[in-house]
Amino acid sequence: MTWLLLFAGLVLLVIGADLLVKGAARLASNFGVPALVIGLTVVAFGTSAPELAVSVKAAFSGQAELAIANVVGSNIFNVLFILGVAALISPLIISHQLIRQDVPIMVAVSVAAVLMTLDGNINKLEAAILVIGLVGYTWFLFYQGKQKGVDVSDGEVEEMLKTHVPMWQNVLLVIGGLVLLVMGARWLVQSAVELATAWGVNEAVIGLTIVAAGTSLPEVVTSVVATIRGERDIAVGNVVGSNIFNILCVLGLSGLVSPTPLLAGEQLAGFDMPVMLGVAVLCVPLFFIGAILNRVEGFLFLTLYIAYVWVLIAMALSLGYLPQLQQGIMYGLLPLVVLYVLISLVHDWRRRKA
User: Fold this and answer.
1) Could you give the CA distance from residue 245 to residue 192 in angstroms, rounded to a whole number?
2) Domain that holds residue 233
3) CATH code of the domain in which 348 resides
4) Is there a contact between 345 and 289 (Cβ–Cβ < 8 Å)?
5) 127-140 pLDDT per residue, tens
6) Model confidence pLDDT, tens digit, residues 152-168
């Protein structure tokens, strides 16, 4: 029944987010809001709606560490698993804007999140700083879009606004989406806590794995479908944008509404948060090299994600071979990744020079 509740919660979160985005986008259009603004606010916030619903519910239910674990796990999953799978399907094109602007912003907000959790929590002041960053980032994107003369953010927004629907139907969609998000979040958090209790592990472990992967389902579908359709630049932009919003929006708003500071335990602050930052930093050289994420790098991302989850499970269950596993990753896998990046950078530099 717990697994059934978990699955039902995930389904409600995905459906609820979709209904909320469609209803809110069309409702905004009814009031004359430009398509660009809708794309940068309603649709962008909508992709983080499942994570936001779960983190807020967790904070209010007293599982404050689950709120941060959900975001950290989602960001790691987004880059290593989603981009890994998408790159294996077809090499991904990296736009110059992502390399010059969005990826550095993702790294910067990841650094901010790591620094904020050094004392073991995110308090209301730090949450307010993240929300201010969210407002500033959204305003910057809107200003940038206006400067470039962009009328429509993307095809998804254009498709939504193409169909004229009565206002009352859009209001019902928004209300229905919110109800499903609340119900889905409640069931997901409840089942995650029950699983953690049954397995004798920390709730953060469930949040970093099962909950994080589940709330990232919309990004999985969007990125994989975009890759199959040949829209290989959208897949990367979707993941990077989602990671930025997860930190600024989900952590920020969850911290503001939470009655207590969001907790980051010793493992979360000392291991998982640095892994999230390391994954973001890894994107900088790999995206820069040829502006393409190839299949080898996709396989590399997936291998790193498997290694990360393996370590999480071994730590949670106190498995005897944990030290050997950590040494194998530290002195085997990670040096191989660094060596691959260095060789690729040298090869790319020689190619550009030639």
Assistant:
1) 23
2) 2-353
3) 1.20.1420.30
4) yes
5) 999 999 999 998 88
6) 445 556 666 666 777 77
